Amino acid sequence: MTLSSKIALIALCACLALIACKPKAGEEKDADAAAGSASDLQTDAEKFGYAIGTDIGRSLKPVRSDVDMDALIKGMDEAMSGKPSRLPEAEREKIKSEVSRKLQTKQMEERGAKAKTNKEAGDKFLADNAKREGVKTTASGLQYEILKEGDGPMPKATDKVTVHYKGTLTDGTEFDSSYSRGQPVTFPLGNVIPGWTEGLQLLKQGSKAKLYIPSQLAYGERGAGAKIGPNEALVFEVELLKVEAGAPAEKPGAAAKKK
Description:
Layout: H1 3-19, H2 27-33, H3 44-60, H4 69-80, H5 89-129, E1 135-137, E2 143-148, E3 160-169, E4 174-177, H6 178-181, E5 185-188, H7 194-200, E6 208-213, E7 234-244, H8 254-258
Antiparallel strand pairs: 1-2, 2-6, 3-4, 3-5, 3-7, 6-7
């Protein structure tokens, strides 16, 4: 492959990146697990070509219906052969921008619809859950249920805590767990989502509880990662293992006196 061909291919990949979405976490592994035999890929050139094709194909998957594969292959072949483009640069940039805007609009509409659905489902879950015996609801909308009462100190927002936890969506889908990792986590209580900051202050050291967190006290409309969508209500099973007092707040003027 000549230098000019490499540059052309890199340029193509860069263009695709402008209009394509990154595959969700785990999609690559799932696709690889279902892949067919590579017996027809013998030479380094064949393997290299297939590898690049796989990357391009995955990048184009979200816009598959907007791409004519014959035209794609034709454009690649002619560019790599050094032939002049059939479309002027201005026209190429225009169509890429148009498709990019179309895709972004579609994604925003889909995300907005998902956020609405998640909010309605979360509100219903919390309304039903609030009726269960043992579940308490705070003024902020946070719900909590004590599974085991501890006898240690209750943390303040400025303290550091060590916990074991498991986080799930309201349908039971697990998205994170310190139990699975086999190690509890330690963090300043003021540096986590509001539902945790408030909820853990309701527990004594040694307690085990469930926190039912509305979306506005979790990750809100932005969601988090591949598993927590926009406006998702979350459920956490938490064990408060240790409370460490944080640095005491300075009194007004204390900093000035130090100087």
